[in-house]
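FORM 7B: Structural annotation worksheet

SECTION A. Query
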Amino acid sequence: MAQLVKMLDYVSRYEHDLSRYTNQFIRLKRSQWERMKRQWDNGVDLASWQIAAGEETIEKKPENEMGSQEEVGKKRFASLSRFLPFRKDEQMDSIDTEPAIEVDELQFTPNIIQDPRSLQQLRKLYIDQLFHFQLKWASSTLTERSRIDGKFMRDNLLHDFLESLPDSYLLFYYPVLKIKKAPVELEVVLMTPVECICMTILQAEEGSVLVGSGERFWTKKLGEKESKLLNPTIGLNRMGKIVSSLFTSAEVDFPIRKILLSKESYIDFPGVAHDIQIIDRRDYPKWLEKEKKSSIPMKSMQFRAAQVLLDLCQTTAASRLFETEEQLETEQE
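SECTION B. Predicted structure
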């Protein structure tokens, strides 16, 4: 699964320590899958799968024993303070270091509500659960939370990317940068171990045809109907220039590739520039499968490039220190 490093202006775990969280995510994903598969092989009823003995849980108190909201917040902070991320000046020297996993922060226990009939079905259930876990990581930390738009739960393209792309791919999904005190909205940025992919997504009706040109507007055809849409290469080229200039300023030598992608539509643009790759409905499955097979491990230059963007990302979040007991229970579900 690709790792969702940043989404919009939501607070993200990866902002605190990119190398640490990328490595811990991979370890967590693998260990929980191996544990689940082992129990399934041994005939354990996964519909009642519980947290293994010895793992920590947040104790629930009866309502009549709860103190004031401030007391709840203080207790919450006290229990979380020992799990706070390292400061940036305390980061590990090597991206291959594998620090211990803090249970409270990284706990991921899939909630399997049905008995899978095959290993393939078991893995599908596991990946679906992990997708929601990734959204949580990309919208909250131990002390802050951003209100996530429910549409991302149903975003098929986001689900495809996170489910199919390798663990070594770092995904920025419509991040908001703050450059010279002004917010700058990017589209999709995918940091692979060998290059940065700037991607513009064209959302249109299934089977529609997008006819491109060098003019300001393109034409969308669906049956007998025609409509106009803004030339998407304008935004794509702008994004490529912004990312390139940021890399240059930070002295990061990392290749940039630009992709114009439409999962549901056909793109007809014979005059496309040589530095833009078009992926439409015909090419999308093959492209995704090709990227999925990549076995290149994460690289130090990839981390440096991703950190350039993370350092400029804008974040909007609210404190979690005084959340109610009901809010904490909802998060754990």
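SECTION C. Observations
The first helix runs from residue 18 to 41. The chain has a mean pLDDT of 81.

SECTION D. Sign-off
Analyst initials: ____
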